[in-house]
């Protein structure tokens, strides 16, 4: 089972400890708690607000999402493989479409579904170990390109009181990510052995489904952590009564 360890995760350099009470951003519209079509309301407002959020918002601690930049991510497989990615850039979030939202206020639960044609991750890597039965060792540039991405994201929340107002505090969540294809490229494998590196990359791409099955828990945890972090930048600043009026 993959275990994800974030040694360093910078999302625009903002700290959650800097939070202060703010009104709902003008590009995010509230939904009424008693609206019988609250799911449709939330979906429409999400579609309208996400394009604005892509540019980031320093007031609310939201980083620029197009591209999203991550300083460093460390991933390990319980002893089989360790990968450290640095200077990471994620492209394609501007093409992600939210297709479904379900709001369960009594149960304090939210469900989201997203679809995207392509997500591309570029950065530097250091890697040592093996995946499946393939030995992997090297450092250099890397890229991962996921095609036809389908994301289902469910999360729970609690309401916590602070300075006389209630705020959403995100809790446990689960995420499922399906792909139609995954292309991987790791440059400078095996101390620059071009022939061995080329053949290894070829095998990784030919066996991408099995590779993704190994990577999926780590990728899912990464995306989940990023999503929760960004949403929390708003929910810890904006009182609940302004989000659902």
From TrEMBL:
InterPro entries: Haemolymph_juvenile_hormone-bd, To_sf. GO terms for cellular component: extracellular space. Residues 1-19 form the signal peptide. Coiled coil: none annotated. One of its GO terms (biological process) is circadian rhythm. The keyword S-adenosyl-L-methionine does not apply. SMART domains: JHBP. Keywords: Biological rhythms, Signal. The keyword Transferase does not apply. Belongs to the TO family. This is Uncharacterized protein.
């Amino acid at each position: 089972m993959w275990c994800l360890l974030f040694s360093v995760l910078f999302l625009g350099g903002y700290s959650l400890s800097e939070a202060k009470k703010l009104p709902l951003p003008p590009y995010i519209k509230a939904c009424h708690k008693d609206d019988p079509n609250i799911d449709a309301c939330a979906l429409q407002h999400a579609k309208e607000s996400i394009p604005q959020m892509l540019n980031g918002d320093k007031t609310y601690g939201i980083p620029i999402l197009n591209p999203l930049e991550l300083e460093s991510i460390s991933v390990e497989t319980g002893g089989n493989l360790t990968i450290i990615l640095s200077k990471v850039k994620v492209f394609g979030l501007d093409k992600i479409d939210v297709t479904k939202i379900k709001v369960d206020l009594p149960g304090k639960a939210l469900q989201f579904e997203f679809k995207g044609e392509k997500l591309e991750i570029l950065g530097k890597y250091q890697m040592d170990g093996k995946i499946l039965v393939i030995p992997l060792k090297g450092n250099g540039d890397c890229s991962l390109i996921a095609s036809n991405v389908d994301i289902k994201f469910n999360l729970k929340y609690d309401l916590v009181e602070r300075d006389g107002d209630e705020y959403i505090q995100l809790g446990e969540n689960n995420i499922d990510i399906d792909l139609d294809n995954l292309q991987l490229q790791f440059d400078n494998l095996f101390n620059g052995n071009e022939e061995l590196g080329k053949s290894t990359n070829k095998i990784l791409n030919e066996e991408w489904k099995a590779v993704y099955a190994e990577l999926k828990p780590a990728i899912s945890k990464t995306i989940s952590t990023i999503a929760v972090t960004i949403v929390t930048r708003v929910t810890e600043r904006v009182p609940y009564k302004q989000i659902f009026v």
